[in-house]
Design goal:
Distance between the termini: 55 Å
Number of strands: 0
Oligomer: single chain
Radius of gyration: 29 Å
Structural class: mainly alpha
Order of helices and strands: HHHHHH
Largest sheet: none
Number of helices: 6
């Protein structure tokens, strides 16, 4: 049994062209047929017959939907990539904003949420631009950062060898966080 062809938008994103609109004629035919059968059942057996026809129709529709195949993987269709002009959701923005705010208020929030993210960003920058691993070549990464004008005091906040501190009051100072982000952008 061969898979049904998937109608796409033409931009090779793999997304359906119109969603349910592509199958609108079939949906209309099913709705008209169901309405006609329900009217006939009401005329023959009253409201009980109409309810029974609607219930059986709903069960058959659900069984049919369960029987339909899921999305098929197609090697010629590239996955949907986000456009650079696509806006992020407001919930994602507020989540990121909350992580930064919490990291400036609590050391535990910094250690558990923001520090791993900043470390990964630093590791990516070092690997992409300098071919150095932050996690396996810690001293080489540290000396590379020192030669790039990195303030030695900032290393404390991102050092992968430093164990996490228990909640000891306030988190990372906003001025320090700003300096870290600025250095990551320059690196």
């Amino acid at each position: 049994m061969s898979a049904l062809p998937v109608r796409t938008t033409g931009d090779h994103s793999g997304r359906p062209a119109d969603g349910w609109r592509a199958s609108m004629p079939e949906v209309i035919i099913a709705a008209v047929l169901m309405t006609a059968i329900t009217i006939a059942a009401y005329g023959w057996a009253g409201s009980t017959g109409a309810v029974m026809v609607l219930a059986c129709g709903a069960i058959l529709a659900l069984a049919f939907l369960r029987w339909l195949p899921g999305p098929q993987w197609r090697p010629d269709v590239q996955p949907y990539e986000r456009d650079e002009h696509t806006q992020t959701t407001i919930a994602g923005f507020w989540r990121r904003r909350g992580v930064v705010r919490n990291a400036t208020l609590s050391m535990a929030a910094f250690e558990n949420e923001l520090r791993p993210t900043l470390q990964h960003l630093l590791a990516a920058r070092l690997a992409e631009r300098h071919g150095t691993s932050l996690y396996t070549e810690t001293e080489a990464a540290r000396s590379l950062l020192r030669s790039a004008g990195w303030d030695e005091r900032l290393w404390y906040w991102l050092d992968p060898g430093r164990p996490a501190k228990p909640d000891a009051g306030s988190g990372v100072p906003l001025r320090t966080l700003t300096a870290i982000i600025r250095r990551l952008e320059q690196l």
